[in-house]
């Protein structure tokens, strides 16, 4: 009979060597770089959305400015961009936590050098996560400020 893998077997063999440890580190750093790219994108979306609303609010106040055909359109566009930025951050945080958890559990724990350690909150120790959570709060505040015209 053919050798059929069971659910309890690993998908592949993990050998703890210097090469595989450095490969694990490169993968972990790549995860951080990906998260930072998401942060840059989200900051751009949130900032641009807020700037559009502010620009068109100031433009209405200029002397001789004609009234807009759709006066609330810039506000809707700004809210949509801010929402997209916050949503991008939330999705990227979930993806980051899932991938970081995968990289620190099972046979990868030996590669990471964290075998036997309490690894529950290792993903939360990254400054990128703290910054992402702060930006989610800023994005929600910007959304509410535009929506409630604060």
Folded structure, characterized:
By secondary structure, this protein is mainly alpha-helical. The chain has one domain. 67% of the residues lie in helices and 0% in strands. It is built from 4 helices and no strands. The protein has helices at 18-60, 73-104, 108-112, 127-147. The protein is rod-shaped.
Characterize this entry briefly.
The chain is an all-alpha fold and 150 residues long. It has 4 helices and no strands.
Topology:
Layout: H1 18-60, H2 73-104, H3 108-112, H4 127-147
Write a concise keyword list for the protein shown above.
150 residues; mainly alpha; 67% helix; rod-shaped
Series of H and E elements: HHHH
Q: How would you name the oligomeric state of the polypeptide chains in this document?
A: single chain
Rg computed from alpha carbons, rounded to a whole number of angstroms: 23 Å
Structural domains: how many: 1
- What is the helix content? 55-70%
| Helix run count | 4
Report strand %.
under 5%
Sketch the major β-sheet.
none
Distance between the termini: 71 Å
Overall morphology: rod-shaped
Structural class, by secondary structure, is mainly alpha
Could you report the average pLDDT, rounded to the nearest whole number? 82
Low-confidence stretches: 5-9
The total strand number stands at: 0
